[in-house]
Amino acid sequence: MAQNEFQRCAAVEHRTSLHEQNPAKIGQQQARKDWVKNYIESQGNSVQNRAAITIPVVVHVVYKTATENISDEVIFSQIDALNEDFSKNNIEINNVPNEFQNSIANVDIEFCLAKKDPDGNSTTGIVRKSTNLNQFSDQTNHIFHDNQGGSDAWDDTQYLNLWVCNLGSFLAGFATFPNDADPGEDGIVINYINFGRIGLDPPYHLGRTTTHEFGHFFGLKHVWGGGSATCDGDDGVADTPMTNTTYLGECPNGTQNSCNSSDMFMNFMYYTDDGCMAMFSEGQKAVMLANLDGFRAGLTTSDACNPVATIDRKLEESLEIFPNPAINFLYLQLAHPFVDNLPLQFFDNYGRLVLDTHFQNKIDVTNFPKGIYFLKITTDQGIVTRKFVVSRF
């Protein structure tokens, strides 16, 4: 396909369509931007210095053909990519020029596939719906509704809804900005040919389309602002230099300049090839966390990442695990004695069993890949779970 025909992102076009349908939303967007600016100024460093937030994701796979009905493994690979990108654990970080190394942000937002549905039942966090539509568009709301060939959203105050479908040959994805979409039509839509990082063709094959659209979902603009890239536009973030280039279909080598400064072309909010994307900036982190605290606050308190279980209260109150994140070893401590041989099971973020053993004070996690894990202890009185992170520094 010709690069001038390919549309990397249609978030701005989708927002324009929403505003045309309801002009009052234009004022709402300006009010949101003003609120975010004031919030960041009033909070100072506390916006940046906070514990990691885990957000439940439900993936709606809407398909007509078997190829469009992507596998669970592809979905797992996308969640992995998101968690790496939002925690600056991706390998491309090392390629960021020295000029921008101090600007790289650990956004400290983690994502899990929901383990509890809106009715309180166990779930995989994956919904599969067949459709009679050949493809979907950023200019319609069909993807968001069962009765229009799509898939109904789960409560979008408690779940981040992510739709994967056929958007045609020339559109990779789009997202809704905070405080912009109607309930039930708020979330992220990604073309199945650009989702995940298994079996895809370069250059948009490493899950960065989804990372980019998540940025929009949490309130980020493109680095050049809205519309075309010119030196007259700006994203409102101080540490992302102004630019007149989108870098669509490009993977630059070395310093690139425009608007009298170096371009941060490796930023996720450019259109650079997936393999050249690497970072969010500290200023972008502040914008995302402010929007999360304000307009998407329900996602921060949702319990949908917690498995459905009856809890053994005595064990729950007694158990302590540390350090978290763990690097080589995870230590378990009980404040009160319990029966010997308490069963321990360790699961990864997708519910896959990675270790089945019995209670020990010291668990070797050296061979656990970095990521999010859940410790599960089952007794006659119920189940206790603990989330922890394995890091590699």
Ordered list of secondary-structure elements with their pairings:
Blueprint: H1 11-21, H2 24-43, E1 53-63, H3 72-86, H4 98-101, E2 109-113, E3 126-130, E4 160-165, E5 173-175, E6 188-191, H5 208-217, E7 257-258, E8 261-262, H6 282-294, H7 298-301, H8 313-318, E9 319-322, E10 329-334, E11 343-348, E12 353-358, E13 362-364, E14 371-379, E15 382-390
Parallel strand pairs: 1-2, 1-3, 1-4, 4-6
Antiparallel strand pairs: 5-6, 7-8, 9-10, 10-13, 11-12, 11-14, 14-15
Could you characterize the architecture of this molecule?
This protein has 393 residues and is an alpha/beta fold. It has eight helices and 15 strands. Strands 1, 2, 3, 4, 5 and 6 form a six-stranded mixed β-sheet that branches. The chain has a four-stranded antiparallel β-sheet with strand order 12-11-14-15. The mean pLDDT is 92.
Short overview:
The protein has 393 residues and is an alpha/beta fold.
Feature tags:
15 strands; six-stranded mixed β-sheet; 21% strand; alpha/beta; globular; Immunoglobulin-like; four-stranded antiparallel β-sheet; 21% helix; 2 domains; 393 residues; Collagenase (Catalytic Domain); single chain
Count of the domains: 2
* Spatial separation of the terminal alpha carbons: 40 Å
Oligomer: single chain
Number of helical segments? Answer: 8
Structural class: alpha/beta
Q: Sketch the major β-sheet.
A: 6 strands, mixed
- Provide the low-confidence segments as ranges: none
The CATH architecture of the largest domain can be named as 3-Layer(aba) Sandwich
CATH top level assignment of the largest domain: Alpha Beta
What is the overall silhouette? globular
User: What's the CATH H-level superfamily name of the largest domain?
Assistant: Collagenase (Catalytic Domain)
Strand content: 15-25%
Q: Could you state the order of secondary-structure elements as H and E?
A: HHEHHEEEEEHEEHHHEEEEEEE
Helical proportion? 10-25%
Q: Averaging pLDDT over every residue, what do you get?
A: 92
